[in-house]
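EI: anyone free to look at a 236-residue chain?
SC: sure, send it
EI:
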Amino acid sequence: MQGRVVHALIRREVDVYRAQGLPEEALNLLDNTLRSNPALPEAVKAGFQAQMRQLQAEISGDLPGDQAAVSDEQIEVIRRGWDGSDTIEDHLECAVCLHALGRCEDALAEFAIAAAKGLSLNRILPQLADCLARAFSPPAVSEETARLAGTILPNPARDTVFLFKLVMAELMAGDGHPEHAAALTRRMVVAGAVPERYQARLRTLAERSIGVAACSGRSSLRSRLKAWLRRACARG
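SC: here you go
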């Protein structure tokens, strides 16, 4: 039993090194363990050797991007390491790293936790928009934006949620995600009444979407968008 506990602790220490971006230290730990314990059970040896091969591939850059960058296990090691003492900045830093690594859904979850702990949304609005656009397809982005709004906003009232969607669409439009911006804008236009204070901004955004539709030859969509926008603003 004692041997199993020691082996489990070694694996845990290896995971901690990897989560901290120290694969060389993890590799050295495994190598030293194998060299100093020639009588290890064959199954344990094989497991350590497999980990060593993966670490060597990480260090040389031979792994696919997601594997080389970060694994689900490594993320969990980071979170366990906080041990209840996690701060806003811990979750923000984790979210920023996950975003940079392309783990956008995981990043959104960390941004949401940071916001729930008191982080100002103004600090992360561009990152939220980019993560939404990268994580979800244009047909799904409106529903996912609404879901995120319900989670991340301190007061998810109708006008507040509408403004959040509007800001997300504006940022997507200006940051290389025109199809996501157009899909989100169309959903806002057809959903119902537009608050009066946001009508001008939505009209500007919708005109950009209409322009995209016109350039793509979808004249019927362009006409419907104009009609929907007039009715929605009239109901606001």
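EI: The CA atoms of residues 110 and 223 lie 40 Å apart.
SC: 👍
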